[in-house]
UniProtKB/TrEMBL annotation:
<dbReference type="GO" id="GO:0003700">
    <property type="term" value="F:DNA-binding transcription factor activity"/>
</dbReference>
<keyword id="KW-0805">Transcription regulation</keyword>
<dbReference type="Pfam" id="PF13377">
    <property type="entry name" value="Peripla_BP_3"/>
</dbReference>
<protein>
    <submittedName>
        <fullName>Transcriptional regulator, LacI family</fullName>
    </submittedName>
</protein>
<dbReference type="GO" id="GO:0000976">
    <property type="term" value="F:transcription cis-regulatory region binding"/>
</dbReference>
<dbReference type="Pfam" id="PF00356">
    <property type="entry name" value="LacI"/>
</dbReference>
<keyword id="KW-0804">Transcription</keyword>
<dbReference type="InterPro" id="IPR028082">
    <property type="entry name" value="Peripla_BP_I"/>
</dbReference>
<dbReference type="InterPro" id="IPR000843">
    <property type="entry name" value="HTH_LacI"/>
</dbReference>
<keyword id="KW-0238">DNA-binding</keyword>
<dbReference type="InterPro" id="IPR010982">
    <property type="entry name" value="Lambda_DNA-bd_dom_sf"/>
</dbReference>
<feature type="domain" description="HTH lacI-type">
    <location>
        <begin position="2"/>
        <end position="56"/>
    </location>
</feature>
<dbReference type="InterPro" id="IPR046335">
    <property type="entry name" value="LacI/GalR-like_sensor"/>
</dbReference>
<keyword id="KW-0678">Repressor</keyword>
Amino acid sequence: MATIHDVAKMAKVSVTTVSRVLNNRGYISETTRNKVFQTMKELNYQPNELARSLLRKQSNVIGLIIPNVAHPFFAELASHVERYAYENGYKIMLCNSHLDPVKEKEYIDMLKRNRVDGIIMGSHTLEVKEYKELHSPIVTIDRQISEEIPFISSDNYEGGRLAAQLLVDKGCRKIAHICGNLELQLLANQRTAAFRDVMAENEIEPIIIQTDMNVFDEQQYEQIMSRLFAEHPEIDGLFATSDIIASFAVKECRKADKHIPEQIKIVGYDDVSAANWITPSLTTIRQPIAEIGRVAVDSIIRQMNNEPLEHRYVLEVELVERLTT
């Protein structure tokens, strides 16, 4: 394997010159620069990225910690984060926490050891002090953990209001809401707060069912739906806090011989790609997933460059009506 010394010898320049070319430091003539790059290509020389990052005090790597990469929302989010990071000259180190605080802490320690330039947190199982002690650029998604740490979310309250109001406007009067566990203190809880407010305004007694603490465990969704329809067969409207939960509701309606949307209307949240694939296609609240990814990367870069930035990014949502309503 070629070394920097081999490059310098073949190009007939000093090792310092090769280092300056690699790190774009100091004046180097275009002729010399081209000669060094051509020599590197001929020798198939691969620079030591860790050594270069130590020299520059910058790794050009951003850490992304999410609860479950298999979940459609986080899969799409990760794809957008990677794309925007790459367009800005950064790579992504992806960590899958599965909402395990021990695993999340190990990943944070690993990212610190690898001197990543910043961390985008989509998983939040640790105490706030763990994040404050990072001393590096950080941005959180759907959780405000500190006044000093920027966060990004969709307008969860408006999304919940739009979903609930649509069901009311469609004539639903026995309306249920399936949400994540409210003890997690996520900004997504505002969807439930808005749902309660709309039900109260219309004098409708809501039915609210929470998942367990692992809100992304899909095995529980079928059980929740089966129990809901068994205990409340009169339900004619359902707002699920994610498209995946709403998809399980569609599946369970088939089993219970409930016709959509004639007998029951269903609204999800997120507008992941699968929302338009299922039959019937899902009415949902669209989160701007691509924009969340872009803003997350931009926030990290702004912190690195000591540029002005917002600490509160609340992005607009949109009601997308399809065949389940």
